Amino acid sequence: MGKEVLDVCIVGGGMITHDLILPSIYHLQRTGKIGHIDICALNNAPLRALKESPELTTAFPHRNFIAWPSFDQPPERNFPVLYRDVLAALPPYQAVIVAVPDQFHYDVVMTALRCRQHVLCVKPLVLRYSQAAEIARFAYERGLFVGVEYHKRFDRRALLARRQYRNGDFGAFMLGEARMIEPYRYRCSNFQNWFTADQTDPFVYVGCHYVDLVWFITGLRPTAVSVSGCRGKFPNGKEGYMWTNGRIRYENGALLSVSDGLGYPDAGAGSNDQGLVMYCEGADRGGLIRHDDQYRGVDHCYLDLLGGTGSQYNYVNPDFYRLVSWDGPGLQPVGYGFDSIAAIIAVMRKIETAADGLAPEEAHTVRQQMIRDTEARGLIATPGNSSINELVIEAGRASISHDGEWVDIGYDPVPSVRLRQDTIEVAEDD
Length: 430
Hints:
Layout (H helix, E strand, L loop, with lengths): L5 E6 L3 H16 L3 E7 L4 H8 L1 H6 L6 E3 L13 H7 L6 E4 L6 H10 L3 E5 L6 H13 L4 E4 L6 H11 L5 E12 L7 H4 L7 H4 L1 H12 L3 E12 L5 E12 L4 E10 L8 E9 L4 E7 L6 E3 L11 E3 L6 E3 L7 E3 L1 H20 L4 H18 L10 H13 L6 E4 L5 E4 L11
Helix pairs in contact: 1-11, 5-6, 7-10, 10-13, 11-12
């Protein structure tokens, strides 16, 4: 393939790969932007589910991928480090998509970078600021682009709010509330094997969307975090945080409350419950930004249950991700979820097209300049322009383990977090 067409390896075959990543990559492939597709998972059971998915086979006829491990292996046999061999076999400067549980992101991302691959990683990138900073340095030194898939940045509502906030149209953000409550049925999914209290929590897993979005809109740095959680048990007996509430203090004194959980009723009309409100103030009047991200003005009532939910009446979000008719075979993905993936892949393609045919040193200089330019524009999340998320996550994990104690975030001389109660440092300076 030419340099304008990249091969893709997806590491992880779970829900997000089925629901968003693979459909997006299939569409980019059939429109000439993606070449060969590999998908690597712990075992081949989820890969077979992807291969046989009625939704995917209907929407993308004649599309396929190479499965690692192959389908001739028994489905119960696990291959925990197979991805290392698969990535090592790729030609350099292709695209690796990291779609594994949060606590495994760092190892997979670093492996891909060592194999000289560009990386798209689902959010959050990693769970510690020092890891984000290391990835940023390591990737830049090698001329490799890392994009973090915070897709809410591509919602037109967010893009409009960002431009107008930074124009001063709302005044200064002072108080806000965000919520993202995922379906109760997640508790019966593979979440119960990795979404354990010692590893993550809803504030980290989905709250990061709105932490990033407020940063994206305002550019305000968080300075302190407090997170409390409610524990519960998954059907397999493992314990996890089912509900969290966090508060974030910003450098201008503003406060954001973030409520998250795995408990939206499966019979509810929405696929989840999510939204953001931001109150702002000027010299002598107030401003407001309100996003209802659950209800986008479209509701359907079906004759039968659709989409695996327990509800026939549904709030339909046509803006995030949907498969719709197009002038081609099958269906096409639309929405800001697809736009986000397509934009990150497009940056990788542009970088490799610009570097194609140049001497190695000149190509390296071109790659680094294009990485700097993309990061400076701030539309696509990168380790460099979104690492406030890792600071908030790290502070949030320290806080929830101390029953909601405030954890302060400092930026000088280097970013770090520290438990306020007894000033014990909970993260080493990077």
